[in-house]
Amino acid sequence: MLLASAAGLSLLHGAHALAADFNVPAQPAKTSIPEFANQAKIQIIAPVSQLEGVNTPAVIGDYDTMAGLTKLISGTRLEVASQRNGVIALRVSTASATESISASASEAAEPEIVIITGFRGSIYKSARIKRAATNIVDSVVAEDIGKLPDTNVAEALSRIPGVAVGRDKGEGRTITVRGLGGGFNVTTMNGRRIASEFYDREFNYDMLGADVASRIDVNKSPLARLPEGGIGAVVDIQTWRPFDLPDNSVVVSAFGVYDEYADKYNPRVSGLWSKQFAGGTLGIALGVNYNKYSLVYDQASVTEYDRDFKFHPSDPVSATLPPNTAFTLPKYLTLSHQQEERERYGASFAVQWKPAENVELNIDGLLSNLSNTSVQDTLGYGFDQGNRDYFGSSTVVSANIVGGNVLGMTLGATPGARNPFAKVEYATFSFPRVSRTGIIGANLAWQATSSLKLSVDASYSRAEQENDGDNWELKAEKAVRNMTWDWTSGDLPDVTLSEEPGTNFPIQFKSATTAGNAVSDEITELRFQGEWNPDALFDTVYFGLGKAEETKSNVQVRTASADLFFGGQLHNTYYDSGTYGDSTFNFTVGDIGPHHGFVVPNYVFSTGGQNFMPTNQSPGLPQNWAGPDMNAYVDWLKDLSDWTLANPRWGDRPPVLAAAFDLLKPTLSPLETYAVKETITNAYVEGVRTGYLANLKFRAHAGVRLVNTRQEASGSEATPVAFYANAPFQWAIKGVKWGTPTPVALSKEYSDVLPSLNLTFYPSDRLLTRVSVAKVMSRAPISALRLGMNQPNFSAGTVEVGNPDLKPFRALQYDATAEWYYSSTGAALFSVFYKDIDTFIANGEIPVTAPNSTITFTAPLNCLSANYCAYGWNGYSNGTPMTATYRKSGPFNSEGASIYGAEMTWQHDFGEWNDALSGLGIQFNGTYAESKTSLTDRFNNKLGIEGLSRFSYNLSTFYEKPKYGARIGYSWRSQFLQRSGDNPIYGGDIGWLDASAYWNISSNVTINAYGSNLLDSATKGTYGRGDGPYNDHLVYLGYSGRKFGLGIRAKY
User: Fold this and answer.
1) How far apart (Å, rounded) are the C-alpha atoms in residues 865 and 941?
2) Is residue 556 within 8 Å of 673, Cβ to Cβ?
3) Which of 997, 1008, 1010, 1020 is nearest to 1042 (CA)?
4) How far apart are CA 989 and CA 999, in angstroms?
5) Count of beta carbons in the 10 Å neighbourhood of residue 997
6) Which of 777, 778, 775 shows the shortest CA–CA distance to 756?
7) How many C-alpha atoms does 89 have within 13 Å on its Cβ side?
């Protein structure tokens, strides 16, 4: 049963909503009153025992709250008893001849209250919102004050059909809607755009604790009054406000969360306080939250597949092969063990003031801070290290060749060969992240007349990510006599080494870099809005205009070259090679490795990867390895730099002018630093009309939004003043030193006319259908609009550039639904959609036939290597001009694309079928989606839209009683394109199982428990899925383990 037998009922919502767009079919009063309260966002109490046999008429259309309520109870025995502190109390009319009980004001004011709570209450309210909405919308509603049904905002959204969650090491972070990622979706908070600390338009939902949200709406079809930009959806996060809550409310919760893989416990606490003053006309709500957790994330990944691998003529295996034959093999396998500490805290406030019955002021704000410390230890195996045609390549002793693919080989010891050893790389990385997101806004609403409501809304939002060069990357190499790898089967290869690395050969320094980028995003918005009930032609007319300004900047810093210590040389000062041994900074012995690299002392190495992945995931790979300690390695580099500065070698070389360690400090990378400013002006008008076509009831909602966008991209131009390079048989540029940057800017302006039409038909009180047609747009990614380029990829000979002249994505979209609300809690919903994207943006190498498809730089050589170039070999020495040409790649407007598919939802409370099943329920939704584009990979396989899974579904079953309850939820999505291009990457299918339970030990105190990723799922990515060598082979396999939480929640 929806409502237990009791003396009263209540639904808690904002008590002072002035008007609403109602869709309450004719039905029993026991269900119509809660439904009306939900749509009006008010609190109503009524005597349940007197509602048996009472039916209410339909209320459909735009009404003032009291006018709508009067219509609802007209012709019944009910009347309004009182309105106090924002609560409307109903009673049975004392004039009714059928009245059997007294209906005094005290009875109306103090009834026993039964609230539909828990997950069942959440999906009940979500269905009511969808049913009453003018457009196509799906919602997630908090189960209770400060309690979403899931532990994370993004994970809560995963239960909505068509929404898939992108996880960052197991935690939901981003979303796609019907296959369209964050750049196609607009995120707002209380209707206001919120800034993002991500470098593009995506919003990172891990910035927000779930406790702040009372409701989240995913608008899949547009309205003229909704912000433009969401071809995928407009996601609105609504926070708690004082008039939504009972007076003098206090809610606190505390959880302990255990991460099984990290084997650590972490706290999560939150609190919310709300109070009303001045007779319920002033309300204040304050919320705080704190969340700290530790995690471990292990990943095995392959860096590209070499499709042009050729064995060296001196390799024994070459004798059995035709000369100059090319094969395909994985280039590099990396095992990564990442330990991370995340700390998030935030605060929110809301003030509501109703100085008069027709005036309401809302002021609310939120601040969230996320601090993330991440240290990553990696172990790398170069599977193609025998391919390099210079001193340093290893001998290929044997190989397993099947067709055109190399599925395994043995590298290393062969007497008299070029190099009788193989090399293994060790690295440690530090990736700190400090991010802040804040928003503050004010809204003043004035009911000017009974038919005219006006409002003004102003907001400011800022987000930033701080990083001034805090990312460290330190690498070292060890040699072994033999390395054998075999990948004839399984997700991961088997790797065998002849001995523990470092046993027979010293540890060599390889490279060191620092880098970082600081992101800032500011949004200022002002909107004027109106709502008019003309009682002619249209029931309601909405109109408004607004202006918004957003500026997003990205400041990039980095080390000029990773190889400042390359080859045992610092600033043109070369140190002789010697015998193997630990470094003592005595350069007459032992400090130069077999390839002229500095020998790293053993004490720099400590605990690295530990308990790498469950053995069933990686049976043929090491579980533990020693890696460089970040602090010890940095200290050693600094000591080495100081010693060499004080002890120069080879007096005929130019003097060392500065410590090499100072050159590791990051400097501004001017071509990668940019800002994009957008000034957006908009105006809209939309009208709502209800009526009948023959005997078919309908509601029509038509509108148009006019948008003008002025865009200014700014950046810098610079020319290189030096190339950092070495010369092992051929030149290899390792870095670049840029000259003084010159500011540049480019402006662009465009306008859009965005009409929309939403039609709803009501064949019966329980059945409705919708049709929606609209023109929509999404602006190009911020990073694609930049005026500049990335650091050149020196080895690949390419450079990624921006394109400020990009057109936005523009599309026509069509939606249709059939919705059957067959009972108070049961619903069967079906929808189809089609998006015809007229202008699309693709990424790839710019065709050589296009103008300006390459860029050429010329700069003097600044030699890093001890090999040849310092001697002037091959005609080059320090100061000799070098010229390098790079092929441009980047975004460009391409032919259009299309997305089409279908969604279905079924939710049911089995107690409606049989009282013995009371409390048992189910919610299921599934999505089928396809896409078509003109994009292909290098083998001409058709590519779809990134992020789109063909199939996905969510299934939740729940059992809830007043004293206890539990829920199990499973989400699954099929394979999806993660990155397009010549060598596309596909994310693998994945299922995610969660469970939660509660026990109400009293009316105020609840014990809660939950588990996440109970199936211990791993994430996987592969290269390709069509024809071609090594397709469906691994890109990455990641594992983060399960999490469990136990906590207590109290409300007063």
Assistant:
1) 43
2) yes
3) 1010
4) 35
5) 17
6) 775
7) 20
**pLDDT per position as a tens digit, 937-964:** 777 888 888 888 999 999 999 998 888 9
Give the pair of three-digit tokens for residue 574. 């070369």
Spatial distance between the Cα atoms of 729 and 971, rounded to a whole number of angstroms: 54
Model's pTM, two decimal places? 0.82
Task: Please report the beta strands in 142-242, taking only residues with DSSP state E, as ranges in sequence order.
Answer: 163-168, 171-177, 185-189, 192-193, 213-219, 233-239
Domains of the chain: 9-115 (3.55.50.30), 303-532+606-622+630-635 (no CATH), 533-559+668-806+846-894 (no CATH)
Residue in the block written with tokens 């390799």 = 315
CA dist., res. 302 & res. 824, Å (int): 53
Six token digits for residue 296:
């471990």
Query: By CB neighbour count within 10 A (0-12 exposed, 13-18 middle, 19+ buried), where does 757 fall?
Result: middle
Residues 6+ apart with CB under 8 A from 695: none
Question: Each residue of 808-823: pLDDT tens digit?
Answer: 999 999 999 999 998 8
Residues 249 and 274 sit within 8 Å (Cβ to Cβ): yes
Helix, strand or coil, per DSSP, at residue 61: strand
Q: DSSP for 632-690, please give it.
A: HHHHHHHHHHHHHHHS---TTSPPP-S-GGGGGS-EE-GGG-EEEEEEEEEEEEEEEEE
Please compute the mean of the pLDDT values over residues 623-648 and round it to a whole number.
79
* Alpha-carbon gap, residue 37 to 51, rounded angstroms: 16
Mapped onto helix, strand or coil, the DSSP state of residue 126 is helix
CB 713 within 8 A of CB 785: yes
Rounded CA gap, 203 and 166, in Å? Answer: 12
Encode pLDDT of 677-722 as tens digits: 999 999 999 999 998 998 899 999 999 999 999 999 999 888 888 8
Assigned token pair, 149: 């049904």
